Amino acid sequence: MLVCKLLGVEYTHIEIDMAAMEHKKKPFQELNPAGELPLLLHGDTVINDSLFMAEYLSANNSSLLFSSDSYEQAEIRMWHAFDMGMRKEYRPLFFSAINKTPVVDDDKQRCLDVCSEKISHLENALTDKDYLVGNRFTYADIVLYTRLSTFSLLGIDSCFKDCPSIRQWLSNVEAKLSLVTSSSDSKKIYGDKRKSKAAIKTKRANKKEKTQVVSGEI
Fold first, then answer.
1. Helix, strand, or coil (residue 197)
2. Which of 62, 119, 140, 196 has its CA 20 to 30 A from that of 129?
3. Rounded to whole angstroms, how far apart are CA atoms 149 and 176?
4. What backbone torsions phi and psi does residue 132 show, to the nearest 5 degrees?
5. Distance of CA 117 to the CA centre of its chain
6. Is the CATH code 1.20.1440.60 the one for domain 66-179?
7. What is the tens place of the pLDDT at every residue in 87-104?
8. What does the alpha-carbon distance between residue 156 and residue 108 come to, in Å, rounded to a whole number?
């Protein structure tokens, strides 16, 4: 959703009830058999994975969030892979928060240990830098900012409380996003809706058809 706002793409947000496992059932699995979120619908076009969604949406303005430099583009993709690894490690805490069920202490400590190790790597990478890649705001910043923003909800934000570079970077990203969010909100270009298969399965119409972003929330 942040990518849509940054690019000025009008979209509809469709929330899937992950606690009810809607992402593992029909009709969602007809769109994505893997049952993974998020997912983008544009006419008959279906794209999953946040990186591929961002690249698709950036086709006409790739320089804003990506790079024409091959190494910088590789760095962006590597940070996306780094984020996916972190996501895998904290899944027990994530689904505990969604389902509102207690998490086993050993699972929480293991997640905290692994995430702390990854956070240490991120802190070192951000030393004397405002942003992750090319020292300018890119998709890499969006994906990791989004990940870290869930840490307080999961009770593991203590792993970066003593990381000054990360905290400064978070402030930099928040300042960048606040301008875009306030602007797009005022234009009311998006909405939050829960929809059934009939509502989310669309037919290809024309290039002006509004994009639909399907996601789940904690």
1. helix
2. 62
3. 15
4. -80, -40
5. 21
6. no
7. 877 777 777 777 777 777
8. 9
Query: What does 145-177 look like in DSSP terms, one character per residue?
Result: HHHHTTHHHHT-GGGGTT-HHHHHHHHHHHHHH
Entry pTM? 0.78
Contact of 96 with 103, CB cutoff 8 Å: yes
Report the run of H or E that residue 11 belongs to, with start and end: strand 11-15
Within the chain, which residue ranges are assigned CATH 1.20.1050.10? 66-179
Query: One-letter amino acid identity for 79?
Result: W
159-192 pLDDT, tens digit per residue, is 898 999 999 999 999 999 987 765 544 332 223 3
Give start-end residues of each CATH 3.40.30.10 domain in the chain.
2-62+190-215
Was domain 2-62+190-215 assigned CATH 3.40.30.10?
Answer: yes
What single-letter DSSP state applies at residue 134? T
CA separation for the pair 143, 213 (Å, rounded): 16
